[in-house]
Design brief:
Layout lengths: L1 H19 L15 E6 L2 E6 H5 L4 E5 L6 H19 L3 E6 L3 H10 L6 E4 L4 H5 L14 E5 L5 E6 L6 H15 L1
Parallel strand pairs: 3-4, 4-5
Antiparallel strand pairs: 1-2, 1-5, 3-6, 6-7
Helix pairs in contact: 3-6
């Protein structure tokens, strides 16, 4: 029951966020702020460096409110299911929330299916630098996705509390970027 109430509270906050019309402040063409963070992939802790990932190709950076909540679980499954399509486009996927690394170790295995890393942003420095803090409930990330080119320019941003279009939209943005290269 406690988990249901917590999930319900987050859902209500997300609904209010939609009503407030909050959007990501960073837009296509802006330079992506650099960051490093403790991350987990398949329950193994390491350090994720945006600069290092960009040396290999574009990065899909997505922020989500909290591990193991309904929308975040759906979104993690969608990213995991599409990971081969991202890899075919040369992209790395990284999810970011303010969850602790112990929580993300479990989330990375069960919900991310050990397919991509999730990073702990417990001090919210990354979320704030990308203006991805939920307006109504500031201890949570807003559901915001960015596609970042290897030159650190943002080529796409999308904010929506609904998890269902983030994968589709970021894949489409990557495909268009690859065609233009």
């Amino acid at each position: 029951m406690k988990r249901f109430v917590s999930t319900l509270a987050i859902s209500c906050a997300v609904s209010l966020l939609v009503a407030s019309g909050a959007m990501a402040a960073l837009k296509a063409g802006d330079k992506a702020p650099d960051f490093t963070a403790q991350s987990s992939l398949g329950g193994q802790v390491s350090t994720f460096s945006l600069a290092d990932a960009l040396k290999k190709g574009p990065v899909v950076l997505y922020f989500y409110p909290a591990a193991f909540t309904t929308g975040c679980t759906i979104e993690a499954h969608l990213f995991a299911d599409a990971i081969d399509r991202y890899k075919a486009l040369g992209a790395t996927v990284i999810g970011v929330s303010n969850d602790k690394i112990d929580t993300l170790n479990k989330f990375s295995v069960s919900e991310c299916r050990s397919k991509f890393a999730v990073a702990a942003d417990t001090d919210q420095k990354i979320m704030k630098s990308y203006d991805a803090v939920m307006t109504i409930k500031s201890d949570y990330a807003s559901r915001t996705s960015y596609v970042i080119a290897p030159d650190k320019s943002i080529i796409y941003e999308y904010s929506s509390p609904s998890p269902d279009k983030h994968v589709e939209n970021t894949l489409q943005a990557l495909q268009q970027w690859v065609k233009r290269k």
